[in-house]
Design brief:
The complex is a heterodimer of chains A (267) and B (307). In chain A, 76% of the residues lie in helices and 0% in strands. Chain A has 267 residues and is mainly alpha-helical. The radius of gyration of chain A is 19 Å and the shape is globular. Chain A starts with a helix and ends in an 8-residue tail after the last helix. Chain B is built from eleven helices and 13 strands. The interface between A and B is medium-sized, with 26 and 36 residues.
């Protein structure tokens, strides 16, 4: 098992992908955390009903400080997926399985090797959003809120959420092994489909609770805040429920992958 | 070093409507180089992948000293395999080998050893994306050697190598077998491996057509005698004594299944004036083509009807 872990860790570290995606994620989080911090503090904030929103400083801080979980989670998700799909894309799966024929060890190796990267992406996301957000609040003479235990708890859980997204990615990559398809689905879902679904479901009272179970909403629930819920557009699950739902998506995807692509002949 | 005995037994792999391998069986002995030969699409790669546990055969099995690949302990230390030169283009050669060292159970220093063995020490820190096909083949062989195995299974190892590379590869596998290792290598060209292999297994359309030593394969070559004479009628009468003989329009007759001495003696006895008498052996490539050519169209129709 430790051999598979070391092998997968070396695979991830021996190409440029891990730091390229990490930098892109940091840039995205910095941009959105900055934009929202300034918008909350300097702009006139209105909700979907046109009424002025009154956002408590604590909610504002949590939303900005966990910006990665709202708008940056596509990066750890994509990295996790690419850990699996690159074996198919570059036809290296045969070489891997020749050195170590057990396919369950292969998946476990990838999942455990993803853990340090999950932590890294989560920590960098937290540092980026807190750094920019706190600076913006301070500039606007707003409370920075970094002494509030709820805010600190949310920041810590946002690291867990970003890490969970990476594990979901590994599961997703085992189910959708075509790398191009995997990237298109990750981007399409996170940037387009889920945001639209969450908005649309919000307008249908009977379906509104279902929005809480969408993966992005589950991730935000874990961190305890979201851009959508702060804007009054949807409710969230409790934190533990968010983690459970999010990891379930990963487990279901990994299960599908286990029963399909990982059972197949390697030709 | 004592290489494992590789035994493929009754191996069949059927896809929906295609039979990629039908009851394939052969043995590759330690200390010998076995050539697994057949045209493209004959079932070579399917057989090798089943042997290496990458695909599950419909029936039959393949073993190394009685153990299937999936049950070998630290398989890389028993069998070194090179199937296709597929690598992540963004990884260096050393980086690629280092990802496999923990799985193969060897120290990292072994990566540099095998790179030196295949002549890639200078290029070790270059990304594989910039490698030529020949360099990729060498890196594939280095990958196979990583676990210091006792057997080598190589799929078309000479593909993409320049003449110097082919000579080097020949010498390498010969030396490996002479140290007692087992070598099984595939090729679609007999001429490419004629100077390398001790034994041949010839496969076509999913079935083994022939398995023997290279010497026994040579013995299958049919002999032909060509002769010319100004006396066209006398020549035709003479060669009619042998079945399957022909006379070409330019007056050259070809006699099959006889030696030059036999034909010469008969011509002398018949008083025929002979201007040219020469014996031609069918060369190995022709024997190979004859053994791998498709069966008669009628047979094929029968097969399709059966499928």
């Amino acid at each position: 098992m430790s051999a598979s872990f070391r092998s997968e860790l070396r695979k991830a570290l021996s190409t440029r992908l891990w730091w390229v995606l990490l930098l892109l994620m940091a840039a995205t989080v910095v941009f959105f955390a900055g934009v929202f911090a300034f918008a909350f503090t300097f702009g006139d904030t209105t909700g979907t009903d046109g009424e002025a929103l009154v956002i408590a400083p604590r909610d504002m801080a949590i939303t900005v400080y966990t910006m990665g979980v709202s708008l940056g989670y596509a990066f750890p998700l994509a990295f996790g997926a690419l850990m699996m799909t690159s074996e198919f894309r570059h036809r290296t799966l045969a070489t891997t399985l020749l050195a170590q024929p057990s396919r369950s060890r292969l998946v476990l190796g990838k999942l455990t090797a993803a853990l340090p990267f999950a932590l890294l992406y989560g920590v960098v996301s937290a540092i980026a959003s807190v750094g920019v957000g706190a600076a913006a609040f301070a500039l606007a003479d707003q409370p920075v809120m970094l002494d509030d235990p709820d805010v600190l708890r949310s920041i810590a859980l946002s690291i867990v959420a970003m890490g969970a997204w990476m594990l979901v990615g590994v599961g997703f990559g085992s189910a959708v092994t075509n790398q191009v398809a995997a990237i298109v689905i990750v981007l399409g879902w996170t940037q387009l489909v889920e945001p639209i679904l969450r908005l649309a479901l919000g307008f249908v009272p009977a379906l509104a609770p279902a929005a809480k179970l969408l993966p992005g909403a589950a991730g935000e629930a874990l961190a305890g805040s979201s851009f959508y819920s702060a804007a009054g557009m949807s409710d969230l699950l409790p934190a533990w429920g968010g983690l459970l739902v999010l990891l379930s998506y990963g487990a279901i995807a990994a299960g599908i992958g286990w029963l399909t692509s990982l059972r197949r002949d390697v030709a | 070093m004592e290489g494992p005995r590789i035994v493929v037994d009754g191996l069949t792999k059927r896809y929906d409507s295609v039979v990629a391998a039908q009851d394939v069986g052969f043995v590759a002995e330690p200390g010998r180089v076995t050539g697994f030969l057949g045209p493209n699409g004959a079932g070579k790669t399917t057989t090798l992948r089943a042997l290496l546990g990458l695909l599950t055969p419909t029936s039959g099995d393949a073993t190394f000293d009685g153990t299937s690949y999936g049950r070998l302990v630290r398989p890389a230390t028993v069998v070194g395999a090179h199937l296709e030169p597929a690598f992540h283009p963004g990884r260096t050669a050393r980086g690629h080998l280092r990802t496999l060292a923990p799985l193969s159970g060897v120290p990292d220093s072994r990566c540099d050893e095998v790179l030196a063995m295949v002549g890639l020490a200078e290029a070790a820190d270059r990304r594989v994306g910039g490698y030529s096909l020949g360099m990729r083949q060498r890196l594939g062989l280095a990958t196979a050697l990583l676990g210091d195995p006792r057997a080598l299974v190589l799929d078309e190892p000479a593909n993409g190598l320049d003449p110097a590379g082919i000579t080097w590869m020949r010498a390498f596998v010969r030396a490996f077998a002479e140290r007692g290792g087992t070598v099984l290598l595939s090729s679609h060209l007999l001429s490419e491996v004629e100077q390398t292999v001790d034994d041949v297994v010839i496969i076509a359309r999913g079935t083994v057509r022939h398995a023997s030593s290279l010497a026994d394969l040579s013995a299958l070559a049919t002999r032909e005698v060509a002769l010319r004479s100004p006396d066209a009628d006398g020549l035709a009468r003479l060669v009619a004594r042998w079945d399957g003989s022909t006379v070409a329009p330019d007056g050259t007759a070809t006699v099959r299944g006889a030696t030059a001495a036999e034909v010469g003696a008969e011509a002398f006895a018949a008083g025929l004036e002979v201007h040219h008498l020469a014996e031609h052996g069918e060369n190995l490539e022709q024997v190979f083509l004859r053994l791998t050519k498709d069966p008669d169209p009628e047979d094929r129709l029968d097969e399709e009807a059966a499928a």
